[in-house]
Structure formats: structure tokens, C-alpha cells
Design a protein that fits this description.
Blueprint: E1 3-7, E2 10-13, E3 18-25, E4 34-39, E5 46-51, E6 57-59, E7 67-72, E8 77-82, E9 91-97, E10 101-102, E11 106-111
Parallel strand pairs: 2-11
Antiparallel strand pairs: 1-3, 3-8, 4-5, 4-9, 5-6, 7-8, 9-10, 9-11
Length: about 110
């Protein structure tokens, strides 16, 4: 059974940084892409960033230059380093694998 568990969320002031982690348990295909999504209150879910098994990355325009996604296949971990956070980054952040497996989310709150 595959499980994804996010951690690292919290409350931070604008301009601050957080690093999210996603631990994968169980077996997923090694070719799986991995994703970070977020859902802000009253808004639709948004793809924040993704990374392929070979390391190719994608970033939403809103986070480009501020967020960095990475993965450690050996440790079965996915990361999202977030810098220069602003209030619009406030959301529940979810990791996903293969677009089929999802975590429960970790809350990020950015205040002025």
C-alpha cells in the first residue's frame, strides 16, 4: 500500500522560508513523476511544481525563482524548498506521485 506523508508546513512571516518534505512508503513505479499541489481557501487546486524521474522540473509562474523541487529516490523523499514566501502562498500543500497517489497535505500560512 502506497502512502505519502507531507511535513514541514507551518506559519511564517512574509519573506521567510519553509522546506516541505514528502515521505513515500510502499512501492511506486520508478518512472513516476512527483508533484506538489496546493489549494488556497476559495481557490481551485493548483499545480505548484513537478519533477520527473530523470530530474526535469516544472514550476508554476507564480513560484518560479522562489521554489525548488527535488527528490531523493533512494530515500523515497520529495522536497519543496520555498523562499521569499508571500501571503498568496498560503495554502494546503499536497504531494502526489504518478498523479495517482496523494498525501493528506501540510498547511502553509504566510502572514505580513
Amino acid at each position: 500500500q502506497v502512502q505519502l506523508v507531507e511535513s514541514g508546513g507551518g506559519s511564517v512571516q512574509a519573506g521567510g522560508s519553509l522546506k516541505l518534505s514528502c515521505a513515500v512508503s510502499g512501492v511506486i513505479p520508478s518512472i513516476c513523476g512527483m508533484f506538489w499541489y496546493r489549494r488556497a481557501p476559495g481557490k481551485e487546486r493548483e499545480l505548484v511544481s513537478s519533477i520527473t524521474n530523470s530530474g526535469s522540473t516544472y514550476y508554476a509562474d507564480s513560484v518560479k525563482g522562489r521554489f525548488t523541487i527535488s527528490r531523493d529516490n533512494a530515500k523515497k523523499m520529495l522536497y519543496l524548498e520555498m523562499n521569499s514566501l508571500n501571503t498568496e502562498d498560503t495554502a494546503m500543500y499536497y504531494c502526489a506521485a504518478c498523479s495517482a497517489y496523494w498525501g493528506q497535505g501540510t498547511q502553509v500560512t504566510v502572514s505580513l
